[in-house]
UniProtKB/TrEMBL annotation:
Native organism taxonomy: Bacteria, Bacillati, Actinomycetota, Actinomycetes, Frankiales
Domain Aminoglycoside phosphotransferase: start-end pairs: 1-161
Record-linked Gene3D superfamilies: 3.90.1200.10
Keywords associated with the record: Transferase
SUPFAM superfamilies documented for this protein: Protein kinase-like (PK-like) (SSF56112)
Protein's name in the database: Phosphotransferase family protein
Any one GO MF annotation of this record: transferase activity
Length: 204
């Protein structure tokens, strides 16, 4: 194992947005290569968003009335758009599958590492591309996709929907027992809400 310097993003923030976008794009560009035939698949991730509709509806109806009711229409519109687009047509690629603020490290204001590869699988890269909104700060998503340069408009729309899904999951986890910081300050719930705000503002 290699030591990754820094703090988890849910305990700090990124101040060098373009640098972090460059770093994330470089990491995912290297990771998203065709996976071998025997690579593991995921039972709950990696598929087209339309196969996650039941989960989205459950999270939506639990989370939205509790504090984000004013953006319910926007949340639903982003998700419905992701569900409507075609599936990933390329070969399954290696996907980290769990990129959120607690699974990336930040040092000197930018990304310094990615941790927790326990859910790695072969599938649609859009599951990782959602990190453009879930991980990166406001205004960095467009730069990320320019540098990554492997995602067409359809993949970006799937990724944006998956970013909404991840945001709702983080908010629900925050409500049900946020891991928090010493002193009791919550982390996952606020990180999820911030990500939701970004994805609603930034269509790329």
């Amino acid at each position: 194992m290699t030591w990754v310097p820094g703090e988890p993003l849910d305990a700090t923030s990124i101040s060098r947005g373009d640098h972090a976008a460059d770093t994330l794009a470089g990491f995912l560009g290297a990771l998203h290569v065709q996976a071998p035939a025997l690579a593991p698949s995921s039972s709950d991730r990696g598929a087209h968003p339309r196969k996650c509709t039941d989960g989205f509806d459950r999270f939506f109806h639990v989370v939205v009335p509790g504090g984000v009711a004013g953006v319910a229409g926007g949340v639903r519109a982003v998700w419905d758009d992701a569900v409507a687009v075609p599936e990933w047509e390329g070969p399954p690629v290696w996907v980290h599958g769990d990129l959120h603020p607690a699974n990336v490290a930040v040092s000197d204001g930018t990304l310094s590492g990615v941790i927790d590869f326990g859910d790695m699988f072969a599938g649609d890269p859009a599951w990782d591309l959602a990190a453009a909104w879930v991980v990166l700060p406001a205004g960095a998503a467009a730069h990320f996709f320019d540098v990554y340069a492997q995602a067409d408009a359809v993949a970006i729309r799937r990724a944006r929907g998956l970013a909404v899904l991840t945001s709702l999951v983080l908010m629900l986890m925050g409500r049900n027992g946020d891991r928090g910081l010493p002193g009791g300050r919550p982390t996952w719930g606020p990180a999820g809400r911030a990500a939701l705000d970004r994805v609603l503002r930034e269509a790329v």
